[in-house]
Specification:
The complex is a heterodimer of chains A (318) and B (322).
Chain A lengths: L1 H26 L6 H9 L8 H8 L5 H15 L12 H36 L4 H15 L2 H15 L15 H35 L2 H8 L4 H23 L1 H14 L5 H10 L3 H29 L1 H4 L2
Chain B lengths: L2 E14 L2 E14 L3 E5 L6 H8 L8 E10 L2 E2 L5 H7 L4 E4 L3 H4 L6 H13 L3 H14 L5 H4 L9 H12 L6 E5 L7 H18 L2 E6 L2 H7 L2 E6 L2 E7 H6 L4 H8 L50 E4 L2 E3 L6
Parallel strand pairs in B: 3-8, 3-9, 6-7, 7-8
Antiparallel strand pairs in B: 1-2, 1-4, 4-5, 9-10, 10-12, 11-12
Helix pairs in contact in B: 4-5, 4-7, 5-7, 7-8
Classes of the chains: A mainly alpha (318), B alpha/beta (322).
Chain lengths: 318, 322
């Protein structure tokens, strides 16, 4: 097991190096460089700075691969993600500030998705081809088809027209006032969770139907167990193994959705940070956020793989 | 002695896109306390569906028990409510299935699965039930039973899993054990071990045994009485010895002639039964065996013979004996 984890972590290194190089280069290809932006904002300023001196000051006069090596070297040897070009504060500091917010949003969305998806998926399988089944399946297709940003916009627009109510815009950290924080986070979390629950629900339903046909379910009934016990103890556990994989694969989708939700609901998480950074061409912040997100996705997938051991004893013993 | 199990006119049908198939057609038989009844027949003859129908384990839909009575200790299992049938399953009637590989839950420990019926029916605590499960695994001769309680099915061989199934089915000392082809999926070398074990355990717990098989060798060795099924019906039923000496139905005779015998002194040739097993969706109007029968008469093609007593304890469904 330990060797497996170590091997998995080692294989991550080339993946992350490759991904970081791509991000590092592509952000520099966005039309309108940070230098242009800084110069344009500085036009009316007192001290005119030349393009060359600005480039030299920010280190952009060196070839891109040298910049990359410096950047990656800083991460590897000093754990330094660089400094924001505008705020002149360490990128890692900014990210650490924002990370818990996105983490909370993602966790809430996941909780919403699972509490909806698993009971509904099981219920849908138990009542296969009945009205309940058709309704829940149609609903899940609907949830899958409706983009989160559209739903989010509706939630902002219509209540404000109808009732003069709109979600809180000023963000309250969880530790400051948990109730107010949750009230603010729950709407984007539900919208994100809906999208995620749709696919999870369908997977749960399919797997339950598959498992309910298995011989060991018949054995469980032959023992005189109640339907409830058969479902919960004998069927669900086996059905959830592939569902867990699916949830792991959804992690990037969830993070992508969080970026959009944070923008719509003005939640100061990683998504909003990334958006601000892209708008101001703050290269170190963009690459830093991508790197952290990349590590997070990979870590979630590793955790998912490890969690198989809990569900599937065959994996545990290999 | 009153019969422990009386099956009367059991009829089970399956609906499919191709129409309705009668898998079990008006089947009646008795099982006495402590006896071993074998139900023999080829694949699709309805023997497994008969076994599953007794405990109402037919997947519904597409299957449905449409008629008949299953009187167990005088009580009709087909009319019991949900809690009633659950109290019988695993407690008064134990069931062993064909596929030991897939009949045990891969995600649960052996101990939990064997202890489960004890907790369910005896109201024992898990701790006590696991202690009893250890004893049960000992008695089905699983070595290191104490350690094996925490093991999972994939760590066991097929034969070992079937031992676990036996321990599980007989955990609550049922008065009837139904074994649906318990050795078909196993290596020939372990088949005899498992059947011996099943027989011994049934004798120890005083359980009657319904042994479903297509293997006439198994029947000869373990069964006291035999019912032969063809196309969803019982075509002959007799004490095992008698059935072997004097099979009456042409299908039973065909079965006997198609099995090699070590005890015959003349070099008899094996005689196969001609033709194909019947398609249950398109059975002929008369006797289902008529298209393959060597002694078929015109009447056999238009009329269906019913199971009729031809001697003490011996009945056959054939116009040659009517």
């Amino acid at each position: 097991m330990q060797r497996y984890v170590i091997r998995r972590i080692l294989t991550l290194i080339p993946t992350l190096l490759f991904a970081s190089a791509i991000v590092f280069v592509t952000v520099r290809l966005i039309p309108g460089s940070v230098i242009d932006l800084m110069l344009s904002q500085n036009e009316s300023g007192a001290a005119k700075v030349s393009r060359q001196s600005l480039e030299a000051a920010l280190g952009f006069d060196r070839p891109v691969y040298v910049q990359y090596l410096q950047w990656i070297g800083g991460i590897l040897f000093h754990g330094d993600l660089g400094t924001s070009l505008w705020q002149r504060t360490p990128v890692s500091e900014q990210i650490l500030q924002r990370l818990p917010v996105t983490f909370e949003l993602g966790l809430l969305a996941m909780a919403v998705a699972l509490t909806l998806a698993i009971p509904i998926g099981v219920g849908s399988a138990m009542r296969q081809d009945t009205a309940v089944d058709y309704i829940t399946r149609s609903f899940s297709i609907l949830m899958l088809a409706i983009p989160g940003f559209w739903l989010g916009t509706l939630v902002i627009v219509f209540p404000s027209i109808w009732w003069g109510w709109s979600p809180e815009i000023k963000y309250t950290p969880f530790l400051e006032h948990p109730g107010r924080n949750l009230a603010q986070m729950i709407i984007p979390a539900v919208i994100l969770g809906f999208g995620l629950s749709a696919i999870t629900m369908r997977m749960t339903r399919t797997m339950m139907l598959e498992v309910l046909r298995q011989d060991y379910v018949r054995t469980a009934y032959a023992k005189g167990l109640a339907r409830r016990t058969v479902i919960v103890r004998h069927a669900l556990r086996n059905a959830l193994i592939p569902v867990v994989t699916l949830i792991g694969l959804q992690a990037p989708v969830l993070i992508g959705g969080a970026v959009i939700m944070e923008q719509i609901f003005v939640i100061p998480g990683m998504g909003l940070l990334l958006l601000e950074a892209v708008n101001s061409r703050d290269y170190p912040v963009i690459t830093g956020v991508f790197l952290v997100v990349g590590v997070a996705v990979v870590a979630i997938n590793l955790l998912v793989d490890l969690s198989y051991g809990l569900l599937d004893p065959k994996v545990r013993h290999q | 002695m009153p019969a422990l199990l009386e099956v009367r006119g059991l009829t089970t049908r399956f609906r499919s896109s191709g129409g309705t198939v009668t898998a079990v057609d008006d089947v009646s038989f008795d099982v006495a306390q402590g006896e071993t009844l074998a139900i023999v027949g080829e694949s699709g003859s309805g023997k497994s569906v008969t076994a599953l129908s007794i405990l109402r384990l037919i997947p519904t839909p597409p299957g449905r028990i449409e008629a008949g009575q299953v009187l167990f200790e005088g009580q009709d299992l087909l009319t019991l409510d949900d809690a009633g049938i659950r109290a019988i399953r695993g407690s008064r009637i134990g069931m062993i299935f064909q596929e030991p590989m897939s009949s045990l839950n891969p995600a649960l420990t052996i101990g939990l699965q064997v202890a489960e019926p004890i907790v369910e029916h005896r109201g024992a605590t898990w701790r006590d039930a696991l202690t009893r499960a250890r004893g049960l695994l000992d008695r089905v001769r699983i070595p290191d039973a104490a350690q094996r309680l925490a093991a999972y099915p994939h760590q066991f061989s097929g034969g070992m899993r079937q031992r676990v199934m036996i321990a599980m089915a007989q955990a609550c000392e049922p008065t009837l054990t139904i074994a649906d082809e318990p050795t078909t999926a196993l290596d020939v070398t372990v088949q005899a071990q498992i059947l011996d074990l099943l027989k011994t355990r049934s004798e120890e717990t005083g359980s009657a045994l319904v042994l479903i098989t297509h293997d006439l060798g198994v029947v000869a060795r373990y069964a006291s009485r035999v019912a032969v099924m063809y196309a969803g019906r019982i075509v002959e039923i007799a004490p095992a010895r008698r059935l072997y000496r004097t099979p009456q139905h042409p299908y039973t005779r065909g079965l006997m002639q198609s099995v090699p015998r070590l005890d015959s002194d003349t070099a008899e040739r094996l005689v196969p039964i001609e033709g194909q097993p019947p398609d249950l969706g398109r059975l002929p109007q008369g006797c289902a065996f008529a298209p393959r029968c060597r002694v078929v008469m015109p009447r056999c093609r238009t009329e269906r013979p019913v199971l009729a007593q031809i001697a003490d304890n011996h009945a056959a469904a054939c116009f040659h004996h009517a």
